[in-house]
């Protein structure tokens, strides 16, 4: 247990070092982003001293680490609030959308990959492979715009951009930051279903790209298992094909699938910038984009740090699941 905690600590410390030094080498002056390019030299120097940027890099890094572990990521120039407060407000929106997206991707991608592998070379296999190819090659922003044009503007099946209709905005007090959970906790069923109508389309778009990756990898893993001798032996013994596929061939690929699903989930959390922009989704991707355009380095570094921490957390959860599903990994 101590080794696990120590490993997480060292990994997070390395992430802090990377984000800190990237923030220092990129050609953006954080002082100018605060005081503006018309500030006098005296004002510029005073702001530089106040921000601690006049000190040597090792001391700056030490202060940065101390600030992070004390929950201080600085103040955002874009919003005028503490970066920690902004992240606690915007990250749950991304988490909610990505979670629904990965559920869709796993629920459809794994069965499709298994079916494609069990019917290799058939029409069904070719269709599933084409769907996967589309998921890899289709631009996310284009698919999002088409989805809005068809399912929102034309058919009116789903809600439009944003998390809620304007009428419901602000009626539910944030508890978890997840609008679906908070609306149910408040007993606001109408707001819950309105949030679902807004969430389903962007989550489905994310889920489609996740589905393509998961289905492709599942098919690859299954083809390798179906060519093994123990599968051939089970078939010769007359074991039903359904049992051969889902018990004998599928069980061994659960462990590598955890890695695939974990990486896909983390990718949805950090790679949803285009989707959040198209759907005006108030998540961390939209927040990071605004911060980059405004040279808001505190917000950029804070967002990058959160995304990196998510990757670390998901990888460690995957390690735990390895040990649960495969006793040999213990």
Count of beta strands: 0
Give the termini separation.
Answer: 13 Å
Q: Name the CATH homologous superfamily of the largest domain.
A: MetI-like
What is the oligomer described by this structure? single chain
Estimated helix fraction: over 70%
Number of helices: 15
Question: What CATH architecture of the largest domain would you give?
Answer: Orthogonal Bundle
Please write the string of helix (H) and strand (E) elements.
HHHHHHHHHHHHHHH
Please give the CATH class of the largest domain.
Mainly Alpha
Q: Which blocks of ≥5 consecutive residues have pLDDT under 50? A: none
Domain unit count:
2
Beta-strand content? under 5%
Structural class label = mainly alpha
Shape: globular
What is the radius of gyration computed over CA atoms, rounded to a whole number of angstroms?
A: 24 Å
- pLDDT average, as an integer? 84
Output the CATH topology of the largest domain: MetI-like fold
Structure description:
- The protein is mainly α and 330 residues long.
- It has 2 domains: 68 residues; 247 residues, MetI-like (MetI-like fold, Orthogonal Bundle), CATH 1.10.3720.10.
- Helix content is 74%, strand content 0%.
- The protein contains 15 helices and no strands.
- Helix 5 runs antiparallel to helix 6 and helix 14 runs antiparallel to helix 15.
- The protein is globular, with a radius of gyration of 24 Å.
- The protein starts with a helix and ends in a 5-residue tail after the last helix.
- The model has no long low-confidence stretch (mean pLDDT 84).
């Amino acid at each position: 247990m101590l080794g696990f905690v120590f490993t997480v600590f060292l990994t997070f410390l390395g992430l802090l070092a990377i984000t800190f030094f990237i923030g220092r080498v990129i050609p953006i002056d954080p002082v100018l982003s605060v005081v503006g390019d018309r500030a006098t030299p005296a004002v510029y120097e005073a702001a530089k001293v106040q921000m601690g940027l006049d000190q040597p890099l090792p001391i700056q890094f030490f202060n940065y680490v101390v600030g992070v572990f004390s929950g201080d990521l600085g103040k955002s120039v874009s919003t005028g609030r503490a970066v920690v407060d902004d992240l606690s407000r915007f990250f749950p929106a991304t988490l909610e959308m990505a979670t629904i997206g990965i559920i869709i991707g796993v629920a459809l991608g794994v069965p499709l990959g298994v079916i494609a592998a069990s019917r290799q070379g058939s029409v069904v296999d070719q269709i599933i492979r084409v769907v996967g190819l589309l998921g890899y090659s289709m631009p996310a922003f284009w698919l999002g715009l088409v989805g809005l044009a068809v399912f929102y503007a034309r058919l009116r099946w789903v809600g439009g951009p944003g998390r809620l209709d304007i009428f419901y905005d602000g009626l539910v007090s944030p508890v978890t930051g997840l609008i679906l959970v908070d609306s149910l906790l408040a007993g606001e069923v109408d707001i819950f279903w309105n949030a679902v109508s807004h969430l389903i389309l962007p989550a489905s778009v994310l889920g489609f790209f996740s589905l393509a990756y998961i289905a492709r990898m599942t098919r690859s893993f299954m083809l390798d298992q179906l060519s093994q001798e123990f599968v051939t032996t089970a078939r010769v013994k007359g074991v039903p094909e359904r049992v051969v596929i889902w018990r004998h061939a599928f069980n061994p690929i659960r462990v590598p699938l955890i890695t695939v699903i974990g990486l896909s989930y983390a990718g949805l959390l950090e790679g949803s910038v285009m989707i959040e922009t198209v759907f005006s989704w108030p998540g961390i991707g939209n927040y990071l984009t605004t911060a980059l355009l405004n040279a808001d380095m505190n917000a950029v570094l804070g967002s990058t740090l959160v995304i990196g921490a998510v990757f670390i957390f998901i990888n460690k959860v995957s390690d735990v699941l390895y040990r649960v599903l495969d006793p040999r990994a213990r």
